[in-house]
Design a protein that fits this description.
single chain; 252 residues; mainly alpha; 2 domains; two-stranded antiparallel sheet; 9 helices; elongated; membrane; transmembrane
Length: 252
């Protein structure tokens, strides 16, 4: 199983590359790219939310507590006094950071229902629903959920790759316990996840606008126009010819 630093670094790198590609294609603005990088990184740690006392779990709940508290404050700050705002913020953060975390530890088992495609799909769709509910566009909402799902898939793939012992050419006992559609050992939770996916998709924002925009990559440029084979060969030819000319003049 990959450790915390591997999951964090890989999720951050892949999410940054994906967000940069969307930025280069003109689909998003820089501030949205930073937001998506953050969500992709969170998604890369999300499956370990079922690991009691792990670094990933503690980090995730700090991030969740901070993000949700920030969103909550942003919606009520004009309606309450400063003292009320402080009290509500502290209560919201501590409830998520400790109470919700303790409840989750009691009902989950590591590499159980949270290490599945159904779980990260439900988490992605829940993110879509929450971001859209906060007043953002359907495109931003779907991209946010998509990066949560993308980061989760990267996490599951890493866990499976680390289950392969290349030196001894064997599969570890943990192979197949991460990248699965749902957890057969938890049929009721798996059924609930599938029902949640269906409900969130049916009651979420339309995906049509997002697909229409994201599927258009006509403005995307992977490399600058000057970086092509002919230009590079011409540059090296000039370097070689100028070097030969300088050497012949020096010999003469």
């Amino acid at each position: 199983m990959a450790n915390f630093n591997t999951h964090l670094g890989t999720a951050a790198l892949t999410s940054s590359l994906a967000a940069t590609a969307l930025l280069s294609a003109g689909h998003i603005v820089p501030i949205t790219a930073l937001w998506l990088m953050l969500l992709g990184t969170i998604g890369g740690l999300l499956p370990d939310i079922d690991s009691d006392n792990s670094t990933s779990m503690s980090t995730l709940f700090r991030l969740f507590g901070g993000l949700i508290t920030f969103s909550f404050v942003g919606h009520i700050y004009q309606m309450v006094s400063m003292l009320e705002l402080i009290v509500y913020s502290v209560f919201c953060y501590l409830t998520i950071r400790y109470n919700f975390k303790a409840s989750l530890e009691k009902i989950t088992v590591h590499r159980g229902c949270c290490h599945s495609l159904a779980f990260i799909a439900a988490a992605g769709l829940l993110t879509v629903w929450l971001v859209y509910l906060l007043g953002y566009s359907d495109i931003t909402a779907w991209l946010s959920g998509g990066f949560i799902f993308f980061g989760g898939v990267v996490h599951l793939l890493l866990d499976e790759l680390y289950s392969v012992d290349l030196a001894n050419r064997r599969l570890k006992l943990s192979f197949g316990s991460a990248l699965k559609v749902f957890s057969p050992k938890n049929p009721f939770i798996s059924a609930f996840q599938c029902l949640l996916i269906a409900a969130l998709y049916l009651h979420g924002p339309s995906f049509d606008n997002t697909w229409q925009q994201v599927s258009n990559w006509s403005d995307f440029r992977f490399k600058p126009e000057w970086l092509n084979r002919d230009e590079v060969m011409h540059f090296f030819d000039e370097v070689v010819s100028s070097t030969q000319k300088a050497m012949s003049q020096r010999q003469g």
